[in-house]
Design goal:
Blueprint (H helix, E strand, L loop, with lengths): L4 E5 L7 H8 L6 E4 L2 H8 L3 H12 L5 E5 L13 H8 L4 E6 L2 H14 L6 H5 L14 H12 L4 E5 H6 L1 H11 L20 H17 L2 H18 L11 H19 L4 H4 L5
Parallel strand pairs: 1-3, 1-4, 2-3, 4-5
Length: about 280
């Protein structure tokens, strides 16, 4: 693309993607940042003519480095394995930024988010809402996803980062992150992460009961509207203090069994998989 460098920050969801979009990338010198949903939606459904239009937008940018950051680029569970080929046709030679997270911890975070947004299902019903298959399970087999991107973009252009390292030592992580990606951050990075409130076990019980009550007494449109606004309110009211929400031992084992094989292949290359207790 006329010699421009394109970085596609594609997720995963629940790995601080929004923080990077709002706090880190805007402070980097000499990049053009695209994060908006309209651009990403156009990108996701682009036909051949649209692809040329997207290339023209990229080529019209004055900056030499373009960062496109949105976790929805990764794709739904139905498109996640076809997206690498599709993206490579639009952005040949692009570099991929991909964050992964312990699947058990990520599914806990997903459920907390679901409850914040008005969900009423039990943890197990939420996880297996597609029948016997774990909800979105295949999408979270990281080794398979990583290798597909390597096939289309080259191993040297696919940068894998661990969300746990970002949390553990933010300063060290950010130093390694900008060095690896050759980005210029003019000022010393300050850890000002805005963390989402992670609901405790009792919080989830309370909010879920409230959600069920609203579903019974409110018209559907009102209940849906409340769900859209509810997360903001919950993050202001609840502190996440108390016993951590955990899936049952049986459910944890089910999740672990689903990912063990894929994680073992990933661990052969990345020691972080074992260090951060990914299912093995």
């Amino acid at each position: 693309m006329s010699g421009k460098r394109v970085l596609l920050h594609i997720g995963y969801p629940k790995t601080a993607t929004t923080w990077f979009q709002k706090d880190l990338f805007p402070g980097i010198d000499n990049i053009k940042l695209f994060t908006n949903e309209k651009f990403v939606n156009n990108l996701k459904r682009a036909d051949i003519a649209d692809r040329e239009q997207i290339r023209n937008v990229i080529n019209s940018v004055n900056e030499e480095t373009i960062v496109i950051s949105n976790e929805n680029i990764l794709g739904s569970r139905n498109r996640v394995f076809s997206n690498p080929e599709y993206l490579a046709k639009i952005f040949p030679g692009a570099e991929i930024i991909l964050f992964v997270r312990n699947q058990i911890d990520k599914y806990r975070s997903n459920y907390s988010q679901y409850i914040k947004q008005g969900g009423v299902l039990s943890p197990e019903a939420y996880l297996f809402s597609q029948g016997q298959d774990l909800f979105g399970g295949e999408k979270h087999k990281y080794y398979r996803v990583v290798n597909l991107y390597r096939d289309y973009f080259g191993k040297e252009n696919v940068h894998i980062f661990f969300f746990e390292e970002f949390l553990e030592n933010n300063q060290r992580f950010m130093s390694d992150f900008v060095r690896k990606l050759k980005l210029n951050v003019p000022n010393r990075f300050i850890d000002n992460r805005r963390r989402n409130v992670k609901l405790s076990a009792s919080d989830i019980k309370t909010v879920r009961s409230f959600n069920r009550f609203c579903n019974k007494i409110l018209p559907r449109f009102a209940s849906n509207y409340l769900g859209a606004k509810q997360q903001y309110i919950i993050d202001k009211v609840f502190t996440g203090q108390g016993m951590k929400f955990m899936y049952s031992k049986k459910t944890n084992e089910c999740i672990a069994n689903y990912f063990r094989g894929d994680n073992r292949m990933l661990s052969a290359e990345f020691k972080q998989v074992e260090k951060y207790n990914y299912p093995l």
